[in-house]
Amino acid sequence: MTVLRTRFAPTPSGFLHEGNAFSFVLTWLAARHFGGKIHLRIDDLDQTRCRPEYVEDIFRSLDWLGLDWDSGPQGVDDFLKTFPNNIS
């Protein structure tokens, strides 16, 4: 049996918006309905616009939406331990 694998991939170059929330909720619903796994991958390729407050907003928003994930950073500190040079 193949396990559905999907992801949340927000970019910390601005605050999240309703479109992000809609996408995250649909992804979460599909993964949980089909017994899938969700990976949080914070795309931080645009390092000139990445800010700590945007990373914090990602985790606050996912928490507010009540969404969980199975792999990837579990919070701001976890993200910063893994990618310490990516946020200015």
Give a description of the structure.
The structure is a single chain. The chain contains 3 helices and 2 strands; from the N terminus they run E-H-E-H-H. The protein has one domain: HUPs (Rossmann fold). It is globular. With 88 residues, the protein is mainly α. The termini are far apart. The protein has helices at 18-33, 52-65, 76-82; strands spanning 5-8, 37-40. Strands 1-2 form a two-stranded parallel sheet.
Question: Can you lay out the helices and strands and say which pair or pack?
Answer:
Elements: E1 5-8, H1 18-33, E2 37-40, H2 52-65, H3 76-82
Parallel strand pairs: 1-2
Q: Can you tag this structure with a few keywords?
A:
two-stranded parallel ribbon; mainly alpha; 88 residues; Rossmann fold; 42% helix
Summarize the entry for a quick read.
42% of the residues lie in helices and 9% in strands. By secondary structure, the chain is mainly alpha-helical. It has a single domain (5-82), classed as Rossmann fold (3-Layer(aba) Sandwich), CATH 3.40.50.
